[in-house]
Amino acid sequence: MNEHFRIPRTVPRKSATFDDASIAEIRRAAATGIYDIRGAGAKRRVPNFDDLLFLGASISRYPLEGYREKCGTEVVLGTRFAKKPIELKIPVTIAGMSFGSLSGPAKEALGRGASAVGTSTTTGDGGMTPEERGHSDILVYQYLPSRYGMNPDDLRKADAIEVVIGQGAKPGGGGMLLGQKISPRVAQMRTLPEGIDQRSACRHPDWTGPDDLEIKIEELREITDWQKPIYVKVGASRPYYDTALAVKSGADVVVVDGMQGGTAATQEVFIEHVGIPTLAAIRQSVRALQELGQHRKVQLIVSGGIRSGADVAKALALGADAVAIGTAALIAIGDNDPALEAEYQKLGTTAGAYDDWHEGRDPAGITTQEPELMQRLDPVRAGQQLANYLSVLTMETQIIARACGKSHIHNLEPEDLVALTVESAAMAGVPLAGTDWIPGVEGR
Amino acid sequence: MQSSLAVAPNRAESTLDSERVFDLRTSTVRELNQKLHSLSEDTNEKFWRVENPRGRHAIAVGLDLPISVTINGHVGYYCAGMNKRADVTVQGNAGVGVAENIVSGRVHVRGDVSQSAGATGIGGNLIIDGNASARCGISMKGVNILVKGSVGHMSAFMAQAGTLTVLGDAGEALGDSIYEARLYVRGSVASLGADCMEKEMRDEHKAQLFKELESAGIAGEVDVSSFRRYGSARQLYHFHIDNISSY
């Protein structure tokens, strides 16, 4: 045999099933005996707005002049029953995030940024702080199962009330704030002992089901003399039925949060495996509204993974009245900034991947209650960054709307869209690009 | 709809002010609440009587004045919800969530109450002459609740602060996942929930209980020594895998 002959060897081949992340998680679980907790929303790839394209104008539809012709962006929320509906200048709002999960300066920055461009912010599972109320021209007050900090004075100070049934990151799960972040002030606001692991209830303490919810909404309206719009927020799971039941229960506004929507702290398995993508939820909610004759009368806010004006425009074209952003707003004010890479490395992660928001060691000073970390965030500068970002989202939405010949962003429609994949075509109810085929629609 | 607002003079219990009467047979709950919310801080209309509540929901919610409201009959859900400073008496039974999220003042139900009485209440007093159903005092955050009868299952679930005093018995899983609320029960307890344990009844607790009985007007009639105290074992304040069987 030729002494130079060698038997060819196979290259090391990693399993697609047991990939690096799966193996690392098995090893971590085996070492600790406890599930993984993290912040943010689903990180897996799911059908999303990138799978849709706008058609733009053509011979049959003419565009509007980009710098000369008006394209309205205002949104009015709460026109069904509330005596004082909310008027937003842009179709992008800030989603609910608690003081506790976020630092005081971060909440202030959100308020400053949103107010600068005429939109709203939202409290979270920890009550309303005076700073937040003071820096938010329009503030939505969340009514959650825990009722931490809930009181009638703050209810009346709010511009709207959002009854939270669930959120996209964890439909069916309650809030979670671990001991590292239960500072004296957070503990006092929530009537909890300092430093404990707070695991909130997942169901409201005094109602269950849509018939009770109707009575609960009636009570909130009576307490606030029917002044405030009342939103009902659900995590996207059964959006057709949940939207219909929210309307039946008397909601002014329905908020549907897809699985890409963020959380401060939840089990990884919950985030990645419960709930449906934002793209899959919108048409179902809109169909419920249309069948009840309530589309555009009960407004629909969609959230979960909104990043760009293209995402905003696509959500609106599918029938939403507005969108809400959470994770993107945090990034805008400095979360996961590559300039902090050295500090992320010390935490065993990298900029762009940092999601241990529950540990309270955020080097950007956003998801923390540590005074020395919090003071790193300049709320004025961060607020300006958020205002800039919200302006860009709005302008990008207008660019697309004008290209489709729309004088108002709400004139965008499903007929302006096509899909790149069969899955997204079915979920969004628009044709596969280059065809007139909408999967699941009879006769197409 | 015609308002039935009328002055009922010469009532013995209204010696300083005339009592105002609101009849829900001819007026709406909206009109009642709007009227009670619109009273000024120095109003002399301090005594109100509501007739024919007929189980309607959200009666006398969101009050924020030191006024007295007596409701003659049964009420539905959330009567006296988020009450502040007012003294509300129900001469009948109450539905789900009576005095939910009460802030201050006093709510007194002469009959029985349904589920979630005093839920999430942050202050004030809730007194129930009859029995309370399941989840009495759920997520309570400082309210003092006194039930002269018995309470149903899961009462004081996740109770954070305040007191729940029960002269009768308590159902299954009392005080499940309780934080720092104090529970005083005179009768039997069907079972304790996760992380709830019996605790020693020291003098400070007897004094607190006496005060609760006093505020319900029964301090001389009931012996504080006949009660047992329950509270948090504080074993589940930090999640630990060794406690997984508790969940």
Automatic annotation (TrEMBL), chain A:
Molecular-function GO term, any one: glutamate synthase (NADPH) activity
EC number: 1.4.1.13
InterPro entries reported in the protein's UniProt record: Aldolase_TIM, GltB, GltB_archl_type, Glu_synthdom
GO BP, sorted A to Z: glutamate biosynthetic process
Start and end residues of each stretch annotated as Disordered: 113-132
Bias type Low complexity, positions: 113-123
Highest taxon listed in the record's lineage: Bacteria
Record has Cytoplasm as a keyword: no
SUPFAM superfamilies: FMN-linked oxidoreductases
Occurrences of domain Glutamate synthase (ranges): 80-334, 358-405
Key word Oxidoreductase present: yes
Record's keyword terms, sorted: Oxidoreductase
Sections of the chain in a coiled coil: none
Signal peptide positions (record): none
Protein family: Belongs to the glutamate synthase family.
The protein's name in its UniProt record: Putative Glutamate synthase, large subunit region 2 FMN-binding (GlxD)
From TrEMBL, chain B:
InterPro entries in the cross-refs: Glu_synth_asu_C_sf, Glu_synth_lsu_3
Record's protein name: N-methylglutamate synthase subunit B
Domain of life, source organism: Bacteria
